[in-house]
Design brief:
By secondary structure, the protein is of the alpha+beta class. The chain contains twelve helices and four strands; from the N terminus they run βαβαββαααααααααα.
């Protein structure tokens, strides 16, 4: 039996859930409450030393890192393949995994945190916040949390996030022009699945159109991806109406500031050409 340790509204969790759904695999879930710091429970840390979600346990063997979990599932259960057939196309697929892991994951976290989760932390006690920051083992990640908590959308990490998304959507528009209707080839692959939850988060935050209003191929890609049953079942229907409403409201509050900072980024980018 496959067991997936999950957290509510975790984008990395959503990516694995979409993969499981697309492959039609049976599994069970166990909830990890991040705001109660359950990810730092010693029993969970034995499964996932980083104290993050998701974690897949397959017959007692833990598999960590969402991108690796998705490939593990596709390799272990080859029915309904989500990887392209040729090594070249699989390499192109992994470029999207690499983009997400190296840039888009953090970019989404900064925008989500500045718009939404920052407000949740503001409702914590000082001691709860201290524990939350202290438990972040990576000094760089702790600095990002602290800066975004203190400065919100004015954090330099948020400006960096806007730049990462701008470059990612530019790459998507180009790839879809070459490969359409999906990012890697004519089939829906892990390359698309890697991006779907992150684009969905921007959509819930009412920030997506800031980046793709003038990118018709990416808009069409998102319309197709958003309508897939796996997206609806693993993202849309997993969220409570109140959660969606909160993301809509908090994201809308920073939308103008994000649009202004994107314009600032583009001015700087054009001057560097």
């Amino acid at each position: 039996m496959l067991t997936l340790y999950v957290a509510r509204n975790s984008i990395c969790t959503q990516k694995v859930l979409v993969t499981l759904h697309e492959k039609g695999l049976p599994f069970e879930t166990r909830e990890v409450n991040l705001f109660a710091n359950e990810q730092y429970d010693p029993a969970y840390l034995r499964l996932n030393p980083k104290g993050v979600v998701p974690t897949l346990v397959d017959n007692g063997l833990p598999v960590v890192e969402s991108s690796l979990i998705c490939e593990y599932l596709d390799e272990s259960f080859p029915e309904r393949p989500l990887r392209p057939e040729t090594p070249f196309l699989r390499a192109r697929m992994r470029l999207w995994s690499k983009l997400v892991d190296e840039q888009i994951f953090e970019a989404t976290r900064e925008l989500s945190f500045s718009a939404h989760f920052r407000h949740k932390m503001q409702s914590m006690t000082e001691e709860q916040r201290r524990v939350r920051f202290a438990n972040v083992g990576d000094p760089e990640r702790r600095a990002r949390f602290a800066s975004t908590y203190e400065h919100g959308v004015e954090s330099p990490y948020v400006f960096q996030a806007i730049g990462h998304f701008e470059k990612a959507f530019r790459s998507m528009e180009e790839a879809l022009g070459e490969n359409g209707p999906w990012l890697v080839c004519g089939d829906y692959t892990l390359g698309d699945i890697n991006m779907v939850p992150y684009v969905a988060r921007l959509d819930y935050l009412r920030l997506l159109d800031v980046f793709i209003a003038d990118r018709p191929r990416t808009r069409d890609w998102w319309a197709r991806a958003a309508a897939r049953e796996s997206t609806l079942a693993c993202i849309e229907r997993q969220l409570e109406p109140a959660e969606i409403r909160e993301m809509n409201e908090h994201g809308a509050r920073i939308r103008d500031a994000v649009a202004e900072k994107r314009t600032e980024y583009l001015r700087g980018f054009s001057r560097s050409l």
